[in-house]
Specification:
This protein is 50% helix and 12% strand. It has 14 helices and 8 strands. It has helices at residues 2-14, 18-31, 71-79, 92-97, 110-113, 116-128, 141-151, 171-180, 192-201, 204-216, 218-233, 237-246, 253-275, 295-301; strands spanning 41-45, 53-58, 62-63, 82-87, 168-169, 185-190, 280-285, 305-309. A 6-stranded mixed beta sheet has the order 6-4-7-2-1-8, sandwiched between helices.
Length: 321
């Protein structure tokens, strides 16, 4: 299921059509109505809710030293009733079921979608990085891009390679670990089948060409990834939104609506009924939170109060959260 998370994160955070995004965000900043405090943790209240729920922005792959659960988040995990991720990561059926959606339909092969020169370029990259391309010839190209993205995130840690801090973690995994001691139920806003249908809606040839572009511009993407990790570490949602808008490898607006904005709307339609009787923690990719079409603004438009919370490592006042 990590493939689904990372692939959607890359297309949602890193492949936005820059021109329309920049224009929209410029007007928002000028009016000041979209300013967000620097935090990943938000309280959802008002609009008839009996108890508050919470929204947290995750990053699906991080170096261990950057992936931590703050005291504030621990307090929320302990006191909420259920936790919702994008996918139900605690469901073995969903986890194993994800495997069948990795492959392209109708036996399509990557080698059939690219010219000989393009395929040779992909082949050379895989060989150079000791990855077996033959195993991925039938895999959806966006998933191959996500594998490359995960591989190029080098984690050395303060104690050097091989130490615990040199490992990679996703915030979802850490939240799940923390929740186990309280036997919290984990659920998903989407299914792997739904997410797979998103990738099937984008022509495989388009995905394959994007893969070649990705490999051609690997240094640029690596630098952009490091910038995004830094922004995430600083909990700067507006900077994350700005960085995503700077990236423009040609992803059409219709696909961005499919990959990001449409999913935001779908989640926000579900959330009122889910929050009505329970206190929930919604932990989704941080790139889904900011912007006019982000989850924070969409919930506010529905009449909810979204309050920034201090997402801090050591807090003496967690009981007041």
């Amino acid at each position: 299921m990590l493939f689904f998370y990372v692939a959607l994160a890359m297309t949602g955070l890193g492949q936005q059509n820059g021109n329309s995004g920049k224009k929209e965000n410029a007007s928002l900043s000028k009016g000041g109505r979209n300013h967000l405090d620097n935090t990943l943790l938000w309280r959802i209240s008002g609009n008839g809710l009996k108890r508050p729920s919470y929204l947290y922005g995750t990053m699906h792959v991080l170096c261990a030293e950057d992936a931590t659960v703050s005291d504030s988040l621990k307090f929320v995990i302990k006191n909420c009733d259920q936790i919702y991720f994008e996918l139900d990561m605690d469901n073995l059926g969903e986890t194993l079921g994800a495997l069948k959606y990795l492959r392209m339909n109708n036996g399509t092969k990557l080698s059939e979608l690219l010219t000989k020169e393009e395929y040779a370029k992909v082949e050379a990259y895989f060989k150079q990085n000791s990855l077996p391309l033959s195993m991925f010839n039938r895999v959806k190209p966006f998933f191959i891009s996500s594998l490359i993205g995960e591989q190029m995130m080098a984690c050395t840690g303060k104690e050097g390679e091989g130490s615990p801090l040199s490992q990679k973690n996703g915030m979802e995994e850490l939240i799940m670990r923390e929740s186990k001691q309280y036997n919290k139920e984990i659920k998903g806003l989407e299914t792997t089948e739904f997410q797979a249908s998103i990738f099937d809606s984008i022509p495989y040839e388009k995905q394959a060409k994007e893969l070649v572009t990705y490999i051609d511009s690997i240094d640029t993407y690596k630098a952009a990834t490091l910038e995004m990790v830094k922004a995430y570490r600083e909990q700067n949602l507006e900077l994350l939104d700005s960085l995503s808008n700077k990236s423009d490898p040609g992803m059409e607006a219709e696909y961005m609506d499919l990959l990001l904005y449409g999913r935001n709307r779908h989640w926000v339609e579900q959330m009122p009924a889910l929050m009505k009787e329970s206190s929930l923690l919604f932990a989704v990719g941080a790139g889904h939170l900011p912007g006019d079409q982000g989850v924070i603004n969409l919930l506010r438009k529905k009449g909810y109060k979204l309050t920034p919370m201090k997402n801090v490592g050591k807090s003496k006042n967690t009981e007041s959260l």
